[in-house]
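Example A, followed by Example B.
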Amino acid sequence: MKTEIIDGEIVRTGGGNVFADLGLPHPEERLLKAKLMHAINAEIERRGLTQEEAGKLVRLKQSELSRIANGRGSGFSTDRLFEVLRRLGRTIEIHVSAASGPIGELCFQETA
């Protein structure tokens, strides 16, 4: 996070990961889960499904989909979120490439 003073006001600019900015543990994993939950919600909305209808497709209770819809990802592993997306007809591709620094990054890119 970058801090500067503009017109006498302290302005803090985030670094692109709110979880890292807040100092939470495992910020890249948290951001990945948030993006996966967003992709799940977008696909359910794109298809015009209710949470109940989607739940039958992905084998989750409506209450579990409600937690995903509200961004409450505790209790959901990335593997489980991958499986939900697959059951919604989305393909998951994982690419491994050289890191630009000593530690690699977790990246997420959603395509149409």
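Example B, a separate protein, is given below in the same form.
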Amino acid sequence: MNCRTAARALAVAFGRGVGPTPDRFLVGLAVLSLMAAASDGQPFCVSSTTRSARPSVGADLAFVARRLMAEPVALIFAVRDGGAEALTGLPELVIKGLSDGDARTCWNQ
């Protein structure tokens, strides 16, 4: 994929450019290329919530996450109960909320 095609796809996908809606896989590959370039061989982390104005954002990022195995990039998703169907099959670490007592202790410190 050349840089102009990727840049144009991302500009339209993020509402910063005008044109026909780019192919979802083209956007995913453009994001993957951007993250790989940004990492420059060093650890790189991106965090996202799956709640978005555009429902396919979670699916787009899941597409990228499945193809990052060879890159030093970590994607961290914040997901509430439900709504994570696109992330099925990716490695996960479930972090539960604090108890009321523990939350009060943290708040008061």
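On Example B: The mean pLDDT is 80.
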